[in-house]
Amino acid sequence: MSRYSVFSLFKHALSHHENWQKVWRNPTPKDVYDVVIIGGGGHGLATAYYLAKEHGITNVAVVEKGYLGGGNTARNTTILRSNYLWDEAAHLFEHSMKLWEGLSQDLNYNVMYSPRGVLNLGHNLQDMRDIERRVNANRLNGIDGEVLNAKQVKDICPLLDCSDRARYPVLGASWQARGGVARHDAVAWGFARAADSLGVDLLQQTEVIGIRRHEGAVCGVETNRGFIAAKKVACVTAGSSSLLAKMVGMELPIESHPLQACVSEPIKPILDTVVMSNAVHGYMSQSDKGDLVIGAGIDSYTGYGQRGSFPVIEHTLAAICEMFPDVRRVRMNRAWGGIVDTTPDASPIISKTHIPGLYFNCGWGTGGFKATPGSGNVFAHTIAKDEPHPLAKPFSIDRFHSGHLIDEHGAAGVAH
Amino acid sequence: MLHLFCPYCQELREEDEFHYRGQAHIVRPKDPESLSDKEWGDYLFFRHNPKGIHHEMWYHVSGCRRFFNVTRNTVTYDIYETYKIGETPAVTAKEETE
Ligand SMILES: [Zn+2]
Question: Contact B46/B58 with Cβ under 8 angstroms?
Answer without folding.
Answer: no
